[in-house]
Design goal:
By secondary structure, this protein is mainly beta. The chain folds into two domains: 36 residues; 253 residues, Sandwich (Jelly Rolls). Helices cover 12% and strands 33% of the residues. The protein is built from one helix and 17 strands. The strands form two sheets. Strands 1, 3, 4, 5, 6, 8, 13, 14, 15 and 17 form a ten-stranded mixed β-sheet that branches. It has a seven-stranded antiparallel β-sheet with strand order 2-7-16-9-10-11-12, with no helix packed on it. A hairpin with a 3-residue loop joins strand 4 and strand 5. The longest helix has 36 residues. The radius of gyration is 26 Å and the shape is globular. The termini are far apart.
């Protein structure tokens, strides 16, 4: 027998259906929001995977620094945002006013000056090179980012540094660098370049230049190599490592593989000294045309992303 329901029943039933539908819709929206947040998080500089594993022979007990650049602020007790060493700002021999910096080498290989606004942190460190719109643009057509290790002196007794980074496109003049300078005016130790990008070759985005001495004009014992990694360094993060053993060896690594070494028996040997670390994104000038890619009129802004820096004693 068909029972006739009162109007109040149907009103209550409709309300229940609407509440149920609202819950389902809310659940769907929640899931979508969670997925979007996860996607955005994964796009943060350092979020591809966990921290760098300790190099062979080292343990956490010897870890002096592990900076994953979490949050949105650079730790200024560890890092400066100007180019220079020993606490001094390089300002192109007095040409630039603070907060800007540049190499003390007028008419050099460098087309970019540096400014603190080109350094940003968002769960990782980003250095950005873009067209210069400051009053110095006629001298330096680009402005970019650099950080130097102000709060940490790499010990003279030896160290191992690992940097997890993703490089910019290096086919149009970008010159990313991971390098080291003595941080005491009494140290006679030479410049050490763990990574320089933009060298000419079949695919500049796969090449890694390393050296001991910084350049032939800087050190008569200069030695270098261009290593073909066989992978696109702009497509993902890789670990660049270096081990400094005074009076013994300096060993250079790419993703854990040794690719170059400076031994005590090589010209220049392995002098003892304290060092500091520089992470830099330079742009090459036309003076580098014989060995480096060059920017063009349409070269876009580029970024060098650093997910983590580790220092072991």
């Amino acid at each position: 027998m068909r029972v006739r329901r009162p109007a109040t029943f149907w009103v209550s039933h409709c309300i229940s259906l609407l509440v149920s539908a609202g819950c389902v819709l809310g659940l769907v929206i929640g899931v979508l929001a969670w997925q979007l947040e996860a996607r955005n998080t994964s796009n943060s500089v350092g979020a591809e995977d966990g921290g760098i594993s300790a190099p062979v022979g080292d343990t956490s007990a010897r870890l002096l620094l592990d900076d994953q650049f979490s949050g949105t602020q650079l730790d200024t007790t560890r890092w400066n945002t100007f180019l220079g060493t020993q606490g001094a700002v390089w300002n192109d021999r007095g040409l630039l006013a603070l907060p800007y910096s540049a190499p003390n080498a007028p008419g050099s290989d460098n087309a970019a000056m540096f400014g603190p606004n080109q350094v940003s942190v968002h769960n990782g460190l980003t250095l950005t090179a873009q067209r210069n719109t400051t009053s110095y643009a006629s001298i330096y057509p680009w402005i970019s980012g650099v950080v130097t290790s102000s709060g940490l002196s790499l010990p003279a007794a030896g160290w191992y540094v690992q940097v997890k980074a993703k490089m910019p496109d290096m086919t149009e003049g970008t010159w990313p660098a991971i390098w080291f300078m003595p941080n005491s005016p009494t140290d006679q130790a030479p410049e050490i370049d763990l990574f320089e990008g933009g060298w000419l070759g079949a695919n500049p985005n796969e090449l890694m230049h390393v050296d001991f001495g910084g350049g032939r004009s800087l050190d008569p014992n200069y030695r270098d190599a261009v290593y073909d990694t066989g992978t696109d360094l702009t497509a993902g993060y890789h670990v660049y490592g270096i081990q400094y053993e005074p009076n013994k060896a300096i060993r250079y690594f790419f993703d854990g593989k040794e690719i170059f070494q400076q031994l005590a028996s090589d010209p220049g040997g392995v002098p003892t000294g304290t060092y500091e670390l520089l992470l830099q994104l330079q742009m090459a000038s036309s003076e580098t045309s014989g060995w480096h890619t060059l920017p063009t009129a349409t070269t876009p802004s580029e970024t060098m992303a650093i997910a983590e820096v580790q220092v072991y004693s």
